[in-house]
Amino acid sequence: MGMAARIASVALIGLLWSCTPQGDPAIGPAGFQDDFDRADLGKLWHNTGGNYKIQEGSLRIQGAKNKPLWLRRKLPRNVRVQFDVRSDSEVGDIKVELYGDGVSKATTDSYTATSYVFIFGGWGNTVNCMARMNEHGNDRVVGKAKKVDVGKTYRVKLERDGNRITAWVDGEQIVQMVDPEPLWGRGHDHFAFNNWESQLTFDNLSIEPL
After folding, report:
1. N or C: which end of the chain has fewer CB within 10 A?
2. What is the pLDDT of residue 23?
3. Is the pTM of this model over 0.85?
4. 3-class DSSP assignment, residue 118
5. For the chain, which domains are there?
6. Is 159 strand, coil or helix?
7. pLDDT of residue 5
């Protein structure tokens, strides 16, 4: 192997390792819960650069510009994720990522995720959707029309069962995607809270294997 090829190989290996962090424990049969009842995020979470902070027992964020807060735990193959969320912005724009790599973030205004992206009240509180990595892609699934009310706390539930990913808000199914090439395995096994510019409060996270 020539010098240029060796350099390219090393660079590729470095990129793969940087995108797929090793050592995060898997979520076991008992599941995972976080009520954010503490002073700071601590070692459970990997902040990629957003203004995430804990205040009054809840997770607060505004203006993260697609720099997610990744949970340092690997998801099971099939999962139920639930959390409370409130938007104090007219634009709504509630966003989370499911089955991403645990480290990715936006480096420019354009951001392609490594995960399924659920958005409730996106694009000025006009669109609810599930996207496979690219939230602007033609393959995203646009769901039921439902606006985010300012100041209202919602209970969101996401489930992944094989190639089917479904989202509910307060028990009402909002959107479902069936993916013929489901994301799974190394590089597609983490959960994150995300945000563009809305003011959001998250609480009472629960993750259960199915």
Report:
1. N
2. 74
3. yes
4. strand
5. 3-209 (2.60.120.560)
6. strand
7. 41
Angle value at C-alpha 189, between 12 and 170, nearest 5 degrees: 145
Q: How many other CB atoms are found less than 10 A from the CB of residue 163?
A: 13
* Dihedral sign from CA coordinates of 176, 181, 183, 184: positive
pLDDT per residue rounded down to tens, the chain (210 residues): 454 444 334 333 343 444 445 579 999 999 999 999 999 999 999 999 999 999 999 999 999 999 999 999 999 999 999 999 999 999 999 999 999 999 999 999 889 999 999 999 999 999 999 999 999 999 999 999 999 999 999 999 999 999 999 999 999 999 999 999 999 999 999 999 999 999 999 999 999 999
Q: Are 196 and 64 in contact (CB under 8 A)?
A: yes
Token pair in block for residue 108? 């420019």
Cβ-based burial of 101 (10 A; exposed 0-12, middle 13-18, buried ≥19): buried
Concatenated DSSP letters for 16-59? HHHHS---PPBP-TT-EEE---SSS-GGGEEE-SS--EEETTEE
Closest-CA residue to 121 (of 158, 84, 93):
93
What is the side-by-side strand order in the sheet with 116-121? 45-47, 69-71, 190-194, 94-100, 116-121, 127-132, 141-142
What are the tokens at 165?
A: 């990913």
- List Cβ neighbours of 96 (8 Å cut-off, separation of 6 or more): 81, 83, 117, 118, 156, 158, 191, 192, 193, 194
Please report how many Cα atoms fall inside a 13 Å half-sphere around the Cα of residue 152, on the Cβ side: 12
